[in-house]
Amino acid sequence: LDEAGYEVLDEDMCYELLAETSLGRVGVNVDGRPAIFPINFALVDRQVVFSTGLGTKLTGALSGAVVAFEADWADTASHAAWSVQGCGPAILVEPGSEVEVAARVKVHAVAPVPRRFLVKIRLSYVSGRRLGGPINPEP
Amino acid sequence: LDEAGYEVLDEDMCYELLAETSLGRVGVNVDGRPAIFPINFALVDRQVVFSTGLGTKLTGALSGAVVAFEADWADTASHAAWSVQGCGPAILVEPGSEVEVAARVKVHAVAPVPRRFLVKIRLSYVSGRRLGGPINPEP
Asked: Chains A, B: CB contacts under 8 A, how many?
């Protein structure tokens, strides 16, 4: 347990939770200010792949800096929760690459306008915490 | 609508959504790396107040830099979603202050170990997007 009373998750459990999740967040810099954007993502070879259109999220993610990533789930009624976070470099997924083919099947964007670009984050670490209850975020 | 097909929310609607929400995220720097942490928060006078213990989240938030904030909600079944984000300076809430008294009532930490510190973020802007469906994240 950590100092807050949460169970500390190992790397395999972090990726297991991320594999069951489709909504996460990416932290980037936009015009020198930090910004967090929601992302629809999927794991491909333990890389976070998300879809986006032209805009500040894409520009910020591809600025060359390391980006932050996070996903979480909480059920206040049962006091169950988990979170997984990490960071790493983000790069554009090559059209026609294996990652692109796999991600096009797995990433489901909720935006009404199709998202043209896929960005992958190669996480240099993952760190996770969990509190009781069921772990499945999207039963 | 923005370029992704989302409704762009005005400031009042952003704060209305945040007022109904208790789980958000804060983006800070930890040892030179960007990190996103989940937070249990409440709005007090349009400031985001969250509770935390001693640790990297507290240290990162109080490092003097502007921090990022985000909250979101999504229901994949009904294709309804919203997100609100912003950023601003974070400072420790003074024990005994009006903000502290109000926040102690409104902020409900899910961590098993009591969270000693309250941190407030004075948002310099908020920006929000929404897609169809009900807006209440915690009915």
From this structure: 118
